Amino acid sequence: MRNNSYYQENPYTNLVGHVWNLWKEDRALDIIDLSLEKPYPEDEVLRCIHIGLLCVEESARDRPSILTIIFMLGNNSALPLPKHPAFTSKTTHRGEDMSSSSGGLPSVNDVTITMLQPR
Predict the structure, then answer these.
(1) Which one of 29, 30, 79, 88 is at 20 to 30 Å from 116 when CA atoms are compared?
(2) What is the pLDDT of residues 29-62, one digit of tens each?
(3) Rounded to the nearest 5 degrees, what angle is found at the Cα of 80, between the Cα atoms of 74 and 86?
(4) Distance between CA 60 and CA 5 in Å, rounded?
(5) In degrees to the nearest 10, what's the CA dihedral of 101, 106, 111, 97?
(6) Which whole number is the average pLDDT over 56-74?
(7) Which of 100, 26, 85 is nearest to 51 (CA)?
(8) Closest alpha carbon to 46 in 64, 67, 27, 18
């Protein structure tokens, strides 16, 4: 059986957001593909998910360096709690008309400027 689809309850959440939501609900192991047969070391899987969430934190300065990641993977030291990840949608739109400036688009002054630069 292949996992070739992904169902999202919130259409504005991506994979990182989905994993983050499961992590907060203490259900991180729910992301494991059911075709993987047990026994797999759940504590190691949870540690890898934990480290992965540390790597996608909102602030780049909070993310671990590659040397720190290697250290985290190589031993069982305590890990800091992950903070809210980047790359997730922070706003939801519930059927508003997004074509107008009053539709809730993220803008400070309803102005968008695009600057083109050659390569």
Answers:
(1) 88
(2) 999 888 877 788 899 999 999 999 999 999 889 9
(3) 105
(4) 31
(5) -20
(6) 94
(7) 85
(8) 27
- Quick one: pLDDT at residue 27? 95
Peptide bond into 80 cis (omega under 30): no
Amino acid at 41: P
**Which residue in this structure is represented by tokens 């720190």?**
68
**What is the amino acid identity at position 42?**
E
**Beta strand ranges found along the chain (DSSP E):** none
Whether residue 112 contacts residue 101, with contact meaning beta carbons closer than 8 Å, is answered with no
Determine the Cα–Cα distance for residues 27 and 21; give it in Å rounded to an integer: 8
Contacts of 13 (CB under 8 A, 6+ apart): 21, 88, 89
Distance of CA 94 to the CA centre of its chain: 21
Side-chain half-sphere of 104: how many Cα atoms within 13 Å?
9
Kindly calculate the radius of gyration of the chain based on its CA atoms and give it in whole angstroms: 19
